[in-house]
Amino acid sequence: MTDRRSNTLTLGMIALFVYFLLPLFWLVVASTKTTGDLFSSFGLWFSQDFSLLTNIRETLTYDGSVYARWMANTVFYSVVSAGGAAFLCALGGYGFAKYRFRANGVLFGLVLGSVMVPTTALAIPTYLLFSKVGLVNTPWAIILPSLVSPFGLYLMRIYAADAIPDGIIEAARIDGASEFRIFFQVALRMLAPGLVTVLLFTLVATWNNYFLPLIMLNNPDLYPVTVGLAAWSSQSVGGSGSTGALLSSVVTGSLLSVIPLIAAFLLLQRYWQSGLSTGSVKG
Amino acid sequence: MKTDSPRPVRRVRRGASSANPAATGYLFVAPFLLVFVAMLVLPLGYAAYLSLFQDRLVGGTVFSGLDNYVTALQDDRLIESVLRMARFFVIQVPTMLAIALLAALAIDSGLLRFAKVFRLGIFLPYAVPSVVATLMWGYLYGPDFGPFAQLADKVGTAAPAFLSDGWMLGSMANIVTWEFVGYNMIILYAALRAVPHELYEAAAVDGAGAWRTAWSIKIPAIRPALVLCLIFSVIGTFQLFAEPNLLQRLAPSVIDSAYTPNLYAYTLAFTGQQVNYAAAVSFLLGLVIVIASYTVLFVTNRRSRA
């Protein structure tokens, strides 16, 4: 055999590929249909009327443009949380990797052990604490808990240990640079791929979070898109009569909500793929 | 590293941080640790504290020791939900990790056309929120306009009732598998890329085929990554919430308020107002996950030594 490529393997992978993309294909197709066609036409192909733009307009304008508001909230919560979390992880990971202070091992072990603490088991006590100090029903209720990423810290420590040679730090010290200046002007740039990885994965975690905002917020104006879509969907299932129109908005809203993250992953793939490899190899 | 740098230069500058760079490390890790303590250690401690009290009709909130835990361990609904998740775990996680491993090996093998397209396509569902994934699959499963029901109708049979009691756990397992195969695949693939290629060449010289190489060299080499995936799966399974919460609306008679442990804790705290008991359940659930994770670590470590 001169060609090393295997057709059987390729066929098997095509089957997998279809399985993973079929629901998304359905979502795209369904977003182009009127509610009537959703029921009457075959789910996996387009119907005669192409009403994607009407659906998008309806989704964006329904109930005083609340959907646009939810999207804006989601973007705000996830960008602030991910930026903050990635920064804390970079700072901490660098600190743990490059400074031999006395409690280094103990503290890092403590953080690493907490990787196994389920975040949802924390959500209820956090809610109770937040309601005592009046943070419930504010954006902080979503952002503050999302700033902690023990796995991100672990990833950044490995990454910092690998990517930043001690010699460079020593040289900068000899030049008289302060420790924080070394971090911001020398180290941070070398940490970039790891930083993008942590940024992207905490972004996804916050973007996709449902449990935390569900319990923390009861003002629809503060909802992220996940909680909003879930609320719409239960209205369209539970109610009757006028709720039919909402169904196509749930479908179209779902499609709109996944586009930004998919785009981010596609655009930044070089970074997160190399960043992830460091984490899993040393694990 | 502390004594390597030239002394005279260092003495030029004063202040604690320049005299002892090691201590500056505390300043670097302090912000993370501060948030860590406030958002992780404190709530955990608070849950433990709350779980030791009970809200009584007479006397209000009183200290009750481990009573909530005694109740929880005898709570049939809680035990049933934990067992249900254990059953879910046993079926879903091996399936998911097997698919992820096969896909990662296939993409890494060099035997595949369009490897990059496959890698991205399979990973894509990870970027879809679990709420959207569940809504989508809920429609696909649906007897009204789900394509499975439509297709079955065309050939004159009925599609399985995906949202019925008998199918629900499997239907949910399918959603979770769909969401997370790609994530696990990427972790495993990244680990495979780091296996030294001399090992493959040596195996090829010895006459090993692609399957043999995969089984005897690649899989053992990425064991740490597999263990990592397994642990993340333990954590994920026992805190399943969005999927059952949304499917409940489609099939309220199948999914009760204690279908998963997390759903139960949520119901206790927000519908039942049994905050103290909910805290005990949350704490216990965390404990179950930690024990299960360490069991996984212990078992896999022992096996690798044997």
Automatic annotation (TrEMBL), chain A:
Predominant location? membrane
Segments forming domain ABC transmembrane type-1: 71-268
Give one GO biological process term: transmembrane transport
Q: Which domain of life is it from?
A: Bacteria
Q: How does it sit in the membrane?
A: Multi-pass membrane protein
Q: Where are the transmembrane segments?
A: 9-29, 75-94, 106-128, 140-161, 182-207, 245-268
What keywords does the record list, in alphabetical order? Cell membrane, Membrane, Sugar transport, Transmembrane, Transmembrane helix, Transport
Give the GO cellular component terms, alphabetically: plasma membrane
The record's subcellular locations are: Cell membrane
**Family per record:** Belongs to the binding-protein-dependent transport system permease family.
Query: What PANTHER family does UniProt report for this protein, alphabetically?
Result: ABC TRANSPORTER PERMEASE PROTEIN MG189-RELATED, ABC TRANSPORTER PERMEASE PROTEIN MG189-RELATED-RELATED
What is this protein identified as?
Answer: Multiple sugar transport system permease protein
Species of provenance: Kribbella caucasensis
- Phylogenetic lineage: Bacteria, Bacillati, Actinomycetota, Actinomycetes, Propionibacteriales
Automatic annotation (TrEMBL), chain B:
**What keyword terms does UniProt attach to this protein?**
Cell membrane, Membrane, Sugar transport, Transmembrane, Transmembrane helix, Transport
InterPro entries the record matches:
MetI-like, MetI-like_sf, UgpAE/MalFG_permease
- Which Pfam families does this entry report, sorted A to Z? BPD_transp_1
**Transmembrane region(s):** 21-49, 85-105, 117-140, 172-192, 221-242, 277-299
Share an example GO biological-process annotation for this protein. transmembrane transport
Look up the record and report any one GO term of the cellular component aspect: plasma membrane
| Main localization (coarse) | membrane
Instruction: Kindly give the membrane topology term recorded for this protein.
Output: Multi-pass membrane protein
Does the UniProt entry include the keyword Cell membrane?
yes
Instruction: Provide the protein's localization.
Output: Cell membrane
What are the ABC transmembrane type-1 domain coordinates in residue numbering? 88-296
Which stretch is the leader sequence? none
Q: Return the Gene3D superfamilies for the record.
A: MetI-like
Q: Family membership, please give it.
A: Belongs to the binding-protein-dependent transport system permease family.
State the protein's name.
Answer: Multiple sugar transport system permease protein
Organism of provenance: Kribbella caucasensis
